[in-house]
Design goal:
With 313 residues, this protein is an alpha/beta fold. It is 37% helix and 20% strand. It has a 7-stranded mixed beta sheet, sandwiched between helices. A hairpin with a 2-residue loop joins strand 2 and strand 3. The radius of gyration is 22 Å and the shape is globular. It starts with a helix and ends in an 11-residue tail after the last helix.
Length: 313
């Protein structure tokens, strides 16, 4: 691609601040490819102008809809993609981290009650609603502007087994009278993970809100400086039963933790479930299962030996 600065000058188009230039280049390249456009100065100038409009929209505090030929995306700013949907297959899990989070099915293939924090474009909610017909799903989303665009992402309307609540996720967990088989924590705003959704109190409340063998799945920013601190908080809340893996096709970290013994499965049992689950659900579960097994083994190997009792003389 020719110099953006020269092209912008030739076409009398302004450029964004230097910190946004890498994102602008990615934006132009992805849009040219997705829409099968030639990299001519005319189209590049048009895309620069579109990008600047997105930057301006991000200053309003409202979610941004970003459409390519085959996908619709949700963003809070031009630097971070929150959700993505294939227009011709709205229930498909597009982003790798969402497929990784569905790894809880390896331990509980048929949950009855699922709680979610963070609606976004509804990828996880739609997938669970369609593929887990016996599950009741409750979602907490704090941003009314996100809920207002649910129809554009084909998120189903509220019914007897699916409800979206406009409330803070921390309050949702504290106030719930239900006990969830699975909790999926994917709550972000334009500043990252809100502090009330990653405190020790919050993770303790998640433990309390689960059934006896309930599982929590948490999406964390892999490159954030506090990520390891958050992993340790989850591990303490769940008495050392947390396992963290790298998300598929993303920098995110996905943490699985269990209140009871549902994750204490032999490797052969875990791998034997993959074929059936892959036939039922169009996801990549094999890599997730292998990552979980590897991390469980590593955690066992790195655990300190049990304290030896002194024998009496």
């Amino acid at each position: 691609m020719a110099s953006l600065g020269r092209l912008a000058a030739d076409q009398s188009v302004a450029l964004p601040p230097s910190r946004l230039m890498p994102r602008l280049r990615d934006y132009i390249e992805s849009l040219l490819l997705a829409n099968e456009l030639p990299p001519t100065p005319h189209y590049i100038a048009m895309l620069i102008d579109d990008f600047l409009r997105l930057v301006a929209l991000s200053q309003t505090g409202k979610p941004i809809l970003y459409k390519k030929r085959n996908t619709l995306s949700l963003m809070f700013d031009v630097l971070a993609l929150q959700s993505e949907m294939r227009i011709d297959s709205p229930d498909e899990l597009v982003l790798g981290y969402t497929q990784s989070m569905m790894g809880f099915l390896l331990f509980n293939p048929e949950p009855k009650k699922i709680g979610m924090i963070g609606l976004g474009g509804g990828s996880l909610a739609k997938f669970c609603y369609r593929h887990l017909p016996n599950a009741a799903i409750a979602v907490a989303e704090i941003d009314p502007h996100v809920i207002a665009i649910r129809d554009q992402f084909h998120i189903p309307p509220d019914d007897e087994r699916f409800q979206v609540h406009c409330m803070d996720g921390a309050d949702f967990i504290q106030q719930t009278e239900n006990r969830f088989d699975v909790l999926m924590i994917d709550g972000f705003d334009r500043n990252g993970q809100p502090p009330q959704l990653c405190s020790e109190r919050f993770y303790d409340d998640c433990h309390q809100a689960l059934t006896q063998d309930g599982i929590v799945v948490v999406n964390l920013l892999g490159d954030a400086v506090e990520t390891q601190v958050l992993v340790e908080r989850i591990d303490r809340a769940f008495n050392g039963a947390a396992v963290v893996i790298d998300a598929l096709d993303a920098l995110n970290k996905i943490v699985f933790a269990c209140k009871g013994s549902a994750m204490d499965l032999a490797g052969q049992v875990l791998m034997s479930r993959i074929g059936r689950l892959e036939a039922l659900h169009p996801m990549i579960l094999r890599l997730t299962a292998q990552s979980i097994l590897l991390q469980q083994r590593m955690k066992t190997l790195c655990a300190p030996p049990p304290a030896q009792e002194n024998e009496s003389a």
